[in-house]
Design a protein that fits this description.
By secondary structure, the protein is α+β, with helices and mostly antiparallel strands. It has 7 helices and 12 strands.
């Protein structure tokens, strides 16, 4: 179940000249810079997501969808909340503790963020909550297909310190956001990631697509707290 937690834990701007953007192709560093500069000003993000996990060896898919909230306090560990509609569950962290609530089982697993950071897992969690630095934590290249059918950029990131939960990360980055950045160096799209694919050491893959993204709306800390419902069993490591 913890692997699911790490798998879930990571937008369009119009440019003024379509002719210019059709001719201009961004270099790898341009895409990385647009991504990093956007994240540097990210304070919080709220978005809908659709998730598909492919389980290696059994050729089985697991699908999920819901809403995610992330907040990056200035001097504290990032907070996050995943409200799954399908399957019904919640993953919540206030930056100190993590709750993984399974209402159908009437159980909630509770662990500390510090425990999750053990064994090299901090890179996975830090990056997916917007604290990571691509150039620092990953070796970056364009994917085998550098652009998708809509022209968005596709990156392949290999952690410099791989862990069991993150052996490779693929990102789809908004072409419009990159092109706007190339025009004048400013960032109009703070969260330009359209999709991410997380590969773990066991060969499992989790793809998450983001939509209805809202950034820096001042999410309250109270959105990242969890009160254990009456009658729910608390499980601790």
């Amino acid at each position: 179940m913890k692997k699911c937690l790490y798998a879930v834990i990571v937008l369009l701007v119009l440019v003024s000249s379509q002719a210019w953007s059709a001719e201009k192709k961004a270099a790898l560093q341009d895409v990385v810079s647009a991504l990093e500069k956007g994240y540097s000003s990210l304070q919080d993000v709220q978005a809908d997501f659709a998730q598909k996990t492919v389980i290696a060896g059994v050729n089985r898919e697991q699908k999920g969808s819901g809403e995610l909230l992330l907040k990056k306090p200035a001097s504290a560990t990032a907070m996050f909340r995943f409200n799954y509609l399908k399957p019904k569950q919640q993953i919540v962290s206030n930056g100190r503790q993590v709750w993984f609530y399974l209402p159908e089982n009437k159980q909630v697993m509770v662990s500390s963020v510090a425990d999750m950071f053990k064994g090299g897992n901090s890179i996975a969690l830090n990056y997916l909550t917007g604290l990571g630095h691509v150039s620092r934590d990953f070796n970056v290249s364009f994917a085998q297909e550098p652009r998708d059918k809509n022209g968005n950029y596709q990156l392949e990131l290999t952690p410099k310190n791989p862990s069991a939960v993150l052996s490779k990360l693929q990102l789809t980055v908004s072409a419009a956001a990159v092109e706007a950045f190339l025009q004048d160096g400013s960032v109009q799209d703070i969260f330009p990631v359209l999709a991410s694919v997380i590969h773990d050491a066991g060969g499992n893959q989790t793809r998450i697509e983001y939509s209805r993204v809202r950034v820096n709306k001042g999410l309250a800390d109270s959105r990242f707290s969890f009160k254990v419902p009456q009658g729910v069993e608390v499980i601790k490591p």
